[in-house]
Specification:
alpha+beta, OB fold (Dihydrolipoamide Acetyltransferase, E2P), 2 helices, 6 strands
């Protein structure tokens, strides 16, 4: 009986460890359910906030239209770790008050939410934003950055074969 209790306790601790290890992964979401790759957008505006936290860094940007109306947008980037390690970002590369241009894809639900492909800074530097768009097999940023072995169900007419 005592051995069974130990086995059950060990199994419960193992299950808890597996669940807790998987939580950060659950927070990261794929591109397709939330964003529409057929709806590219370019936004130019002023940064109001930067959130440099996992699973995705975000930038809040105010866009002023020709009539002077200001609209708040949220721009999603890749994870801070990936941005810093692979794409020349740092937590302070974009700050509140900076002017930026964002190229990305609109949210499917009509929210003012964009998955960024790149962010161009006021000094002209264009930084790759590590969008989850590029997490899918078959999507290539360049010859050096490509996820190979697209599954048979994956079809993207914008990608040249």
């Amino acid at each position: 009986m005592r051995g069974n209790i130990r086995n059950i306790a060990a199994a419960a601790m193992t299950a808890a460890a597996i669940l807790l290890t998987g939580l950060p992964t659950l927070a990261h979401h794929p591109f397709a359910p939330e964003f529409d790759w057929k709806k590219p957008v370019t936004l130019a505006g002023t940064v109001t906030n930067v959130n440099w936290a996992n699973p995705h860094a975000t930038i809040a940007v105010e866009i002023r239209d020709r009539a002077g109306t200001v609209t708040a947008w949220l721009v999603e980037l890749g994870s801070p770790t990936v941005l810093e390690k692979n794409y020349q970002w740092a937590a302070n590369v974009v700050k509140a008050g900076d002017t930026v241009t964002v190229d990305g894809w609109l949210a499917k639900d009509g929210q003012k939410f964009v998955s960024a492909k790149s962010v161009t800074l006021s000094d002209g530097r264009e930084l790759f934003a590590a969008s989850s768009f590029f997490d899918l097999p078959g999507r290539c940023v360049s010859e050096e950055v490509c996820v190979e072995d697209a599954p048979s169900w994956f079809s993207d007419p914008s990608r040249s074969q």
